[in-house]
Amino acid sequence: MGSFNCVSPEELSFIANIIAIELSAGKNADELNVLGNFIVAIGGLMLAIAAQKQNLESLSKDDDNKKRGSSN
Asked: Out of 26, 27, 43, 55, which residue is the most buried by the measure of CB atoms under 10 Å away?
């Protein structure tokens, strides 16, 4: 997602704030709780996916380094 690579932390925070305000408009507390928890669940799953991708990439790099070391 290259579009986030050129956004400052402050701009990203501002964008998140605007999105939260817009998504909250016209919703009661129960609806906001459901929506907020749903978004948090999505974020948690995305973090788990990212962590496993990093883990697999690290294992792959370790295997490549071991193969290079044993062939020399």
From this structure: 27
Domain around 19:
2-71
Using DSSP's 3-state secondary structure scheme, residue 7 falls into coil
Question: Are the beta carbons of 35 and 42 closer than 8 angstroms?
Answer: no
The number of distinct structural domains making up the chain is 1
Q: What is the widest separation between alpha-carbon atoms in the chain?
A: 66
Query: What is the identity of the amino acid at 61?
Result: K
pLDDT tens digits along 2-16: 788 899 999 999 999
From first CA to last CA, the distance across the chain in angstroms is 38
